[in-house]
């Protein structure tokens, strides 16, 4: 082989000298030409030069992004060796990971997106959820139809559907997968103001199976899985106890009745939450945490803005770093209402077993029932706020957002989550401390948001930002800076795939966007 054909010798030297004249977008596209160009375009020096871009040039607009990626390397050098071993999966080399992080984040930020195919569903879409393996996509429609699409030959095609109008549903509002092929659906009913949670079995090929469980919940209330295996789920029931005094009961429900024991628990109250300022709990997630929470005194009132000092930036970069699979040991419920996020520990894995003799014998139960009918209890006076608070479980952690909460998504690496507010801004909070780590401001005209679903992957975050143009904001995770994408209708949901594909629900269509960034050398985990 000639020395000019060798990637490590003269060919690589010449390519790097030529690539030094390219901007970030052109450099990312050049890496898709061939293997030799890919190796040359992945040189860290080519990306670090963006830091020296003078004001007014094209590269200056992305200088802060590149600087943040380089700061990531510096922050990780300040961590002790024990924490470094915890934070990097599969014992990957520490410096190798930092180098990959700089290359991947810069390539994503500079390359941008290109529009892919659009898929029409036939009805307005409200929500989407990707199965854990990535093979199926569940689409919730406004006409109470659940669509299950599968990626076949590089395109999405319908694999199955379920019409829930026969079960009295008016719309399917939300969906959430469990690892056991079970799908948790939330929707409104036709003839009453209540909502309902439904556990549906889904086959591997997309076929809809049996309904395992159905539970009523308050209108607009949130519901979520209590464990990743799909053995139990949470439902929320709102109570009005007095003038302007509300509390929410969180119920722990079994996902299925397939058990050998007739005394297996079906449902049980888990905790009661006081609704601050009368705001309704609309978003909830149960997350795995390495730090257990303890409930004691009410959490202190938090600040509404993230910390601006260097320690806050370091905490954010650490939160988006990889985590070992066995690090999570405790479960934490994170629920939002209005401008507040709260965290509570979840200790019960599923409802306790039924006690057949707990209420006494049959004769004793009949006697008590007759006494209640003969002498009904007088109406109790309305309790005051102090009495209601005393009967509720205070949150172990609190976070205050800049505006009312309209969307919540867990970061793929599990140490933080992104909360979208009604003004189109997105805030990153740590798990389980709920420390405000970073905030990306919204844009003008985003005041019409009411419920959206953001997406937070390993290196990218995307969320609907409101407006008639259907704007979707996206940022590179390590830098909190990116751009916006426009659609033909108001966007309501974002889904990020592992291969650099962004799915957006807008109107009755599924938009597909593909990142222009070429896969960089050894870019696993970025």
Summarize the structure.
With 526 residues, the chain is of the alpha+beta class. It is 19% helix and 36% strand.
Provide the fold topology.
Elements: H1 10-19, H2 24-30, H3 35-41, H4 44-48, H5 63-77, H6 81-87, H7 94-111, E1 113-120, E2 125-130, E3 136-141, E4 145-152, E5 155-163, E6 169-177, E7 182-189, E8 195-202, E9 208-217, E10 223-225, E11 232-242, E12 245-254, E13 267-274, E14 283-289, H8 310-319, E15 330-337, E16 340-346, H9 362-374, H10 385-390, E17 397-400, E18 405-410, E19 416-421, E20 426-430, E21 436-440, E22 455-456, E23 460-466, E24 471-476, E25 481-485, E26 491-496, E27 501-506, E28 509-515
Antiparallel strand pairs: 1-28, 2-3, 3-4, 4-5, 6-7, 7-8, 8-9, 10-11, 11-12, 12-13, 14-15, 15-16, 16-17, 18-19, 19-20, 20-21, 22-23, 23-24, 24-25, 26-27, 27-28
Helix pairs in contact: 1-3, 2-7, 5-7
Describe it for me?
The chain is an alpha+beta fold. It has a domain at 10-111. The chain is 19% helix and 36% strand. The strands form seven sheets. A four-stranded antiparallel β-sheet has the order 1-28-27-26, with no helix packed on it. Strands 2-3-4-5 form a four-stranded antiparallel β-sheet, with no helix packed on it. The chain has a four-stranded antiparallel β-sheet with strand order 6-7-8-9, with no helix packed on it. Strand 20 and strand 21 form a beta hairpin. The longest helix is centred in the first third of the chain and has 18 residues, at 94-111. The radius of gyration is 26 Å and the shape is elongated. The model is unreliable at 54-95 and 521-525 (pLDDT under 50).
